[in-house]
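Supplementary notes for students who missed Thursday's class. We covered one full example, reproduced here. Read the sequence, then the structure, then the short commentary at the end.
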Amino acid sequence: MRPITRQSPLDEILAAADQVILGKSQQTRLALCCLLAKGHLLIEDLPGVGKTTLAHTLARLLGFQFSRVQFTSDMLPADILGVSVFDRDRGDFRFLPGPVFSQVVLADEINRATPKTQSALLEAMEEGQVTTEGETRPLPQPFFVIATQNPSNQIGTFPLPESQLDRFLLRIELGYPDHAAERALLESGGRREQLPTLSARLSASDFAALQQQVAAVHASAAVLDYLQLVVEASRADARLVHGLSPRAALSLLAAARAWAFTAGREMVLPEDVQAVLPAVARHRLQLLSGSHAGAEDIAALIRAIPVL
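Structure (token representation):
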């Protein structure tokens, strides 16, 4: 296989995505880093700010098989995983795979479904397989879940439990566009019509090679010391119910490696850890008041730990 340069394919993907998701370069880069680090992505924000469009855009640019599941309160686990039906011609039952059998699954408005249905994704997200009716079936590789959810204060939502939130490597928010980006949307009538014109910029083998290179990005002992101090500071913070878990620490390192890689570097810097920390930590850290940690809470963690 031909050698892959980091800058050209990734810059091309980010540039193409920026033409669809206007004014959100930071969030788009975080989303790409999540997939490069073999993680699942949670996008939480108000309806209508581009969450679904971002998921479609990444899937098309990366050339992945894509399926979309609209979560509703009456959805059942079988609607996601699949079901066996009786084949009269064969005289036996035949399994019909659900939409989870895809490389990228968009779980749209995941917190509109009941906890029972939400939990149908747990095994898939953790182990890349689905067990139904006593049989375990592998999922296509690579396998990613990109979930969107509405703010928890909106009517008809069921909060994701901490165990499921922890399955998401990163959580991002898109927010409102700035004045210039919104003006461009108004003048163009939106950007969703561009989705059918997007073509894959990488092959599956190229993307797998990039993932291997991301995992090999060097993290020095000093950077690991810094990362551990940040994690330990979260565990000692009296404002928090609990701190970051060892799995969260591994997620932080994986995301920092991907962020450094997209910057064209072969080593992680403390700045990379700081750049991805909010997206790694905010959905994992709960304040004593019951809400999740905010941007200022994460900023306080960063200020509390000097760069070695």
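Commentary. Residues 1-6 have pLDDT under 50 and may be disordered. The first helix runs from residue 7 to 18. If anything here is unclear, bring it to office hours.
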